[in-house]
């Protein structure tokens, strides 16, 4: 029919304009297949780089005094130029820590498996926990008991009941903490990590007697 011839002529002319580099034989070959795929080159999308949120550097943290205890939480000791932190101020922090551990361990029940609780405590945040130095290569550290105010990679900052701030190294010290009758021991020499790093570390459950 005349309509089909016009359509064929139109398609041939359209392909010739759309693909001028293609020869007539190639166009006729495409028409015999009854399927025409026009070449199309989509524009490459440029991926936008995500801006990473930068935290404070160590120098900026020191300048901002982020890790220093506020003056209103301190009192002036008698005949002592150093300020001493009050123990009573941080007792509510200890109560919050106890509730946090109970929720983390799904309740410290008598039938709870000790190794499960131990593994969770090793990765838990210890700020607010009451710890005691049970063994140490330095006898002067043995018996120190108090609330952990700050944990660093190599030391604990502990406030005692006598309102004295103690800086106790982790190395060569064994710490114990007690909660609801469950006593856990921490070997400081195997604990030389920041609090943020411990949450991703896999601790071995194998015991050790080394300080």
UniProtKB/TrEMBL annotation:
Establish whether keyword tRNA processing is in the entry: yes
Name-wise, this protein is Ribonuclease P protein subunit p29
Q: Which Pfam families match?
A: RNase_P-MRP_p29
Q: Relate the assembly described in the record.
A: Component of nuclear RNase P and RNase MRP ribonucleoproteins. RNase P consists of a catalytic RNA moiety and 10 different protein chains; POP1, POP4, POP5, POP7, RPP14, RPP21, RPP25, RPP30, RPP38 and RPP40. Within the RNase P complex, POP1, POP7 and RPP25 form the 'finger' subcomplex, POP5, RPP14, RPP40 and homodimeric RPP30 form the 'palm' subcomplex, and RPP21, POP4 and RPP38 form the 'wrist' subcomplex. All subunits of the RNase P complex interact with the catalytic RNA. Several subunits of RNase P are also part of the RNase MRP complex.
* Source organism (scientific name): Chloropsis hardwickii
Q: Which domain of life is it from?
A: Eukaryota
Q: Name one GO cellular component term.
A: ribonuclease MRP complex
Q: Which UniProt keywords apply?
A: Nucleus, Phosphoprotein, tRNA processing
């Amino acid at each position: 029919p005349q309509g089909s011839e016009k359509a064929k002529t139109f398609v041939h002319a359209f392909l010739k304009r759309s693909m001028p580099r293609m020869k007539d034989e190639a166009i006729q070959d495409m028409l015999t297949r009854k399927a025409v795929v026009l070449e199309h080159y989509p524009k490459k999308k440029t991926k936008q780089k995500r801006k990473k949120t930068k935290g404070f550097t160590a120098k900026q943290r020191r300048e901002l005094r982020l890790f220093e205890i506020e003056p209103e939480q301190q009192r002036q000791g008698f005949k002592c130029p150093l300020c001493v932190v009050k123990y009573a101020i941080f007792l509510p922090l200890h109560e919050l820590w106890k509730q946090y551990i109970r929720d983390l361990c799904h309740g410290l029940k008598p039938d709870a498996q000790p190794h499960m609780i131990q593994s969770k405590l090793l990765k838990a945040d210890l700020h607010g926990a009451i710890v005691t130095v049970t063994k140490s290569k330095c006898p002067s550290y043995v018996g120190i008991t108090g609330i952990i105010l700050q944990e660093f990679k190599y030391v604990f900052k502990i406030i005692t009941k006598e309102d004295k701030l103690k800086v106790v190294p982790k190395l060569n010290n064994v710490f114990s903490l007690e909660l609801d009758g469950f006593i856990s021991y921490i070997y400081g020499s195997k604990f030389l990590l920041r609090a943020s790093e411990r949450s991703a570390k896999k601790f071995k459950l194998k015991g050790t007697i080394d300080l």
